[in-house]
Every structure is written in C-alpha cells, then in structure tokens.
Amino acid sequence: MPNRLANESSPYLRQHADNPVNWYPWGTEAFTQAAVEDKPVLLSVGYAACHWCHVMAHESFEDAETAALMNALFINIKVDREERPDVDSIYMQAVQAMVGQGGWPMTVALTPKGEPFWGGTYFPSVDRPGMPSFKRVLATLGDAWKSRRASIEKTAKTMLELYNSTASASPSGPLSPELLERAFATLARQHDSARGGFGGAPKFPQTMSLEFCLRWWARSGTTSALEIAHQSFIAMARGGIYDQVGGAFHRYSVDAGWLVPHFEKMLYDNALLVLFGTHLWQATGDLEVARIVDETIQWLRREMTSPEGGFYASQDADSDGHEGTFYVWNAAELDAHLASNSAVLRTLWGVSDGGNFEGKNILHVRQSRAEVAKKFNISETQLAELVKSAVQQLYDVRSRRNWPARDDKILAGWNGLMTRALAEAGRVFQRREWVEAAVRNGVFLRDTMVRDGRVKRVHMDGVTKVPGFLEDHAAVSLAFMALHEVTGQLRWLHEAREIATAMHSQFRDPVSGAWYDTAADAEALITRPRDVFDNAVPAGPSLAQELMLRLSELDGAGVWATEVVDQLATQAEPMARWPNGFGHLLGVTDMALFGGVAVAVVGDSDAADFQALMQVIARHYLPGLVLVSGRPGEDSVPLLRGRPLLDGGAAAYVCRGFVCELPTSNPTELERQLLALRVEK
User: Fold this and answer.
1) What is the spatial distance between Cα 292 and Cα 202, in angstroms, rounded to a whole number?
2) Poorest-confidence range of 2-6, 162-166, 342-346, 477-481?
C-alpha cells in the first residue's frame, strides 16, 4: 500500500510512496506521533536527481527487513531538500558539526522536539570497511534511545548551543579593496593552471568564484584574473562535464580533468553558467563561449521548459538503473552512425575502442576544433558543419534510449536565476527568442508564484505551495530587474521593488541587520536558518544584498546601501580567507565598495538611435551595471527623472553615485564613458 508520500507533489517524495517504510512528510503530524509513541524521528533528506539517494532507496528503503526496523524504532520523515531548503540547512549544519562533512542522502536522528542528536549521509545495506550497515546504525540508535537518553539529551543541547552561537555576528574586519585583492590572491593560488577550475577531484564548476575573477579583471585590469575565468570555462566546455550532444553542464566532475561527470543536470548550475558565459563573451569575444551559451539555452528551451513557461528543476543521473547510461557511447556504435565522418569526430571527441568510462565513451574535446581541422586538412567551417550534423544525428539516436527521470517541479528561486541569465544573454547577444522565453517565464512567475510581493517556493502539477524563502524573493526580484533592462518595460521594475520591500520587512532582523532564510511569519523550527555561504547557489543573504544595492542605484535609497555595507563587514575576514565560500558575496562587496555603473537611456525604444546606444552597452562587460530605460518625462524611477532627449533624439546618461557624465547621443562617446568607469585606477 502506498504510504503518506503518495499525495505529495514532490517527484522525489513520490519516488518513495511505495516503500514499505511508513514515511511521513515534514509536518506536525510526524512530531506529534513521535511524542505520543516516545520514539525518535529518523529524518532522511535528498532530492530527485541524487544518485546516492537512489542507491540508498533501493538498498534500504525498499527492503522489507530494513523498513520493519525503521518502522519499529522510529517515526520516519522524508524531505525533498529542494522544496524545504530551510529544513535541509538546519540539519546539514548539525551533521557537519557532528561528523565533519555532509552530503545527500542526509540521515539525521532527532528528538520528538526536532533536536538533532546524531547524523550521517549514505549508509550501505551491509557492513563495509569503515562504514556500518544501515541496519546496524538503526539498531544502535534505537538502543541508545532506550538506554542512554541522558547522553542523547546532552548532544541535543550541544547542537542547540551551536545554532545560538552562529546566529549572532559582529564586524570581522574592514570593508576595503584590499579584502578583494586578498580574496583573488587566494583563488589564484587554488587555481588548477593545467586543467582549469580550483583544486582537485571531485571538481565543481564554482561559477560564482569564476565570475568574481572576471569581475576583478574588469575592476583592476589584472590579466591573470581573466585568464583563470576564460581557461576554466573552456576546460569545462570541452570536458565530459559538458554534454557534447545535448548541451548543458552536468553537476560536477569526479576527476580533476572534467572528464567523468556526476551525470545529473541542475537548472541552477546552468543558470549560473549561462550568465557567466554571457559576461565572459563580453570580455573576450570568444565564439566558442558564445556557442556553449547558445547550446545550453537550447537545452533549456527544448527539455526543461513547461507548457506554461516555467523551468523544471533537474534531470536525473540514472537511467536503466545505472548512472550515465543515457549519455555514453561505444566506439562501434559511433562508427555505425557517423560513417565516413567517424575518424574526424572520434578524434575530436576523444573516442577509443576501449572507452574512458566502464568500457564506453564520454564524449569530450581532446583537441580544439582548429587542431582537428588542420589534422584532417579541412576548414574549421567544414568541421563545424560536420559536428552540427553529427550532433543532431546522435541526439536523435539518444532520444530513443530510456531517458533519465526529470524533476518537473518549478522552484521560484532557481527560475529567477535562469530568467535573469536568459534575459541578460538575450540583451547581450541580441537574441529576441531568448528574451521572449525570459519574459514568458517572468509572466509565469508573476502570475502564478507571486502575491502582494510575497513569493511561493514550489509549483507542481497545478499546485503552488510552500512560502518562499529569502533566495526565492531575491532571485525573482533580480530577474524582474533584468527583464526591465532588456524590455524597457517599467512594470518589471515596479514588481521587483514590491517584492524587495516585502522581503526587507519579512527576512531582515531590524535590530541586528542580519538576513534570515525564512520569513518572520514562517513555520517556527528549532532555529531560524541563516546560511551565509554561497554553495551550489548564491546564498539568500548575498542575493538579497545585491538586490538592495541595485535598487539603491535606481532609487537613491541610501539607507539600503548603508545596511548592506554594515552586514558585509560582519563577513569581511571570512570572505578574504575562504573566497570559494563567498563567490557571489565578493561581487556584492565589489559593488558596495566601488558603486554600480548606472546607465539611463531615454528615447523611443524602437528607434535606430536608441538601439545604437543599447548595443554599445550590450557589448561591454561592466561589473555592477544597472540599466534603466524609458521615455522622457518618466518620474516613477528616480534615475530617469529630469533626463531629456538630446536634439529630439535618444540620449544616454552614465552615472556613478548619482554623479553623471554629460549626456550623449553618440555611441562612440558612450563607449568611452563606459570604459573609463570600468577599471579603477
């Protein structure tokens, strides 16, 4: 019989609906039952695209003997971390404190009050060296609950003290350009100069740190910062972590050379990489970067967009019961499909008879297209046409395989990240269809997931639920600002401001100035979560503070900017020491220190002179760019007030700190003004 998860909207929870485990969803019913039966709670947290979550489910949660033990000793709760990042964050902090590391699946034992007293991650079905079986863990925890309750209560008390100690923050150092210099120097030391990225295996994109490197180049003129950003993106794009056939990036690489990925594809990774790739193209003009951005957006529109315009959460790593099966090829199969072009394409994609992954081949680019074209005495244009044709053919072949599962839930924060990236890419590359897709998603978010400035977290199967978290509010508001920048429609700015105002009221502590991940009126948990680290996605506080700074540039709201500076000072020293944990926040700090580049363009948006000015702005990477446009006489946005046309035509006003250059209608003069503001002397 299906358990309580059968009625949940989360695909991850529904995957466990037929387990013999008596699962509860997160909620008061489970904790009330735990108190009534005097049982501990076993909390299991994962997500739909998580490979090891599936492994543990097959080995343990589908096993009748294990399930019987779980049901006898515990009240069992299953949580989708993507739906409830607040629950995940609270208990991940406890697991990391108890065992020194975390991950998913996350397994935590709680008191009926929700206090953690033990935690871990994946456990096998049988004992392994250094890793007890899950059944052994369950029996040990059950015995401890019955016979060592005082020890459990002591551990739970220690965890509560941990939460209390991390809730307060005071200034840790000066907020200065030297902080950013130290942060970049640390990243430069961690950079893998041979293979790109930072550190060794497993290797994650760390896109926000790369974006900061690009920003530091534009800010300081440090050429090595641009080289780190560019080399790392190209190395990833040529590796197995990038899907050479279907486009888009997998989650991470299990090796240091980007060859063998963990095969799931996450919306948020690709959102961050599209935005970074767009900025990198502005900085370099590299056509390979532009192609990767294009292919990733094609994947988004083809495989990850709902009929209503929302973007789905993820694609699984597994199909046919094995990780990566959908994506790999044997050499004979490729030879049969590619026929006379096989030799060229096998060389380009590093294909061998023995394979590079369990006897098969993960396609990756071992040599550049220029090198392969020269080797086979063909032009790069001819090679590009061969690749285009082969990719379409292989995609068609692959589409007939069993597809990995897709998590069809729509998460507001992740959609906000992608809509912002898509709008920015559409503006920079002048791609109308990308802009239309971004606007369609924005309309979906506004009409379905936003009410009176408050954002809902999840939409699935026609149901919108879960009060939004800080990251949802900030990411959606930033996306709406990006939609204004590309469309010129002021309604998007008004929507963004309404969300920001509600966010400021609900998520910021008026006494300490700290930002919390949950709203003041949200469900009370054992602590109010406040995750300040930029991990797989930018932290809610760093997104919120960026939003406050960007709106300050438009509205002259100096108090918001001052609040941001005060909060950034509480993390100054950690940012300098551990920059990979604060990649996005470093960019916010840069904007707080140097100010944004605010550009107001007035005129008829359909006129050639207006478009000529906008094209100049689109060509250049400008850290902290805040762009607003409209017709003269518009007074709802302070940055547009008192901005007349020039000789009856379009005019651009370039400002920093509400001190503006002389207005210009000349694209060449506009370019000079923008470049003069970019690099700090």
Assistant:
1) 23
2) 162-166
Contact 615, 672 (CB under 8 A): no
* pLDDT for 170: 66
| Contact (Cβ atoms closer than 8 angstroms) between residue 184 and residue 212 | yes
The C-alpha atoms of residue 391 and residue 254 are separated, in whole angstroms, by 25
CA distance 581 to 97: 17
Encoding tokens for residue 578? 């551990």
Q: Give 333: exposed, middle or buried? Use CB within 10 Å, 0-12, 13-18, 19+.
A: middle
C-alpha distances in Å from residue 395, one per residue of 337, 398, 400, 404: 11, 5, 9, 14
Q: Is the pLDDT of residue 26 over 70?
A: yes
> What DSSP assignment string belongs to 456-503?
EEEEETTEEEEE--HHHHHHHHHHHHHHHHHH--HHHHHHHHHHHHHH
Main-chain dihedrals φ then ψ at residue 471, nearest 5 degrees:
-65, -35
Q: How far apart are CA 248 and CA 267, in angstroms?
A: 9
Cα distance between residue 118 and residue 128, in whole Å: 20
Whole-model pTM over 0.85: yes
**What is the average pLDDT value for the chain, to the nearest integer?**
94
**Among 596, 465, 567, residue whose Cα is nearest residue 509:** 567
Residue 648 Cα distances to 265, 367, 389, 610, 645, angstroms: 50, 54, 50, 12, 5
- Give the phi and the psi of residue 198 in degrees, each rounded to 5: -125, 135
Q: Which residue has the tokens 């509860």?
A: 24
Whole-number Å distance between alpha carbons of 677 and 567: 26
> Is the pLDDT assigned to residue 664 strictly greater than 50?
yes
Structure tokens at 516: 């919390």
Cis peptide leading into residue 25 (ω within 30°): no
Joined together, the tokens standing for residue 112 give: 């009926």
Share of the chain above pLDDT 90, in %: 89
Q: Count other C-beta atoms under 10 Å from residue 129's C-beta.
A: 4
Q: Are 547 and 500 in contact (CB under 8 A)?
A: yes
Q: For residue 416, give the 3-state DSSP assignment.
A: helix
C-alpha distances (whole Å) from 136 to each of 21, 66, 94, 601 are: 17, 10, 21, 67
Helices (H), 327-411: 331-338, 342-348, 369-375, 380-399
DSSP label of 598: E
User: What six digits make up the tokens of 427?
Assistant: 């503006």
The answer on pLDDT for 19 being more than 90 is yes
